[in-house]
Amino acid sequence: MTARRLTAVGLDQIGDIAAGDDLAAVLLDALAAAGENLQPGDVIALAQKIVSKAEGRAVRLSDVTPSPRALELATVTGKDPRLCELLLGETELVLRQREGLVVVEDTRGMVLANAGIDASNVTADGDSVLLLPEDPDASARALRNALEQRTGVAPAVVIIDSIGRAWRQGTVGTAIGVAGMPALLDLRGKPDMHGRLLETSELGLADEVAAAASLLMGQADERCPAVLLRGLDLAGDGTARDLLRPRDRDMFR
To answer: Which Pfam families would you find in this protein's record (predicted)?
Structure first.
């Protein structure tokens, strides 16, 4: 019997990304620098930051004028009112707020802190923040198509971000955009090793891929914003939206 094997290769030959950069070309150059070529079944995981930067989602705080609602939120949370203004623009519903933190359901349907807006690794002067891609699933599909057009191979693409969880400490690499693989794998009705049928098992497959890639990407100055994963059997297709828990099944609201 051949041992199961998963290979993860950090693509760290990627410099700073600017608005309008061709991510497919950047990734292919990084793959070549790592001595790799795309193969059928490969997965490319990307940090959200480089996708957002390429899509022009950086905003300078000095260009933002806070609204009265943003000023009120800033008073409660102690956050920069300009950041609160951007946060509200990305938010469908504010769920929780306290000093230093706002938890929202964002315009994409995700529940996360501060609407996913981040200031780390954006600009040296600290004046710019980065918003999430407007439609991460569409971004993943577009990148997958671009890679296929140039190589003949259509890898699965997962865009990831570090997101906290209501019931656990710490953030974990989480899929916010998916193309070319199932995001949620329904195992209900399949037998376990003793033949008993599974009744409740649904696997957040894309999140597991994201967490694996995040181990190589790191969180600080590692400069490894993309990872090639090989050895997974991911037949099928899905979107990150498949992973969002419906409101009527969310016990933490």
So the answer is: F420_ligase (PF01996)
Maximum Cα–Cα distance for the chain, whole Å? 65
Domains 7-49+134-249 and 59-129 share a fold: no
C-alpha span between 229 and 209 (Å, rounded): 8
pLDDT tens digits, residue range 177-226? 999 999 997 766 566 666 675 556 677 899 999 999 999 997 655 688 99
Helix (H, G, I), strand (E, B) or coil at 95: strand
Q: In the sheet that 156-165 helps form, which strands lie side by side, from edge to edge? A: 7-10, 226-230, 43-47, 156-165, 168-179
Report how many helices (DSSP H) and strands (DSSP E) the chain contains, helices first.
6, 12
Distances (CA, A) of 74 to 84, 116, 149: 6, 17, 46
> pTM higher than 0.85 for the full model?
yes
Backbone angles phi, psi at 127, to 5 degrees: -90, -15
108 — phi, psi (to 5°)? -95, -5
Domain boundaries defined on the chain: 7-49+134-249, 59-129
**CA 176 – CA 100 distance, rounded (Å):** 24
For domain 7-49+134-249, give the CATH number.
Answer: 3.30.1330.100
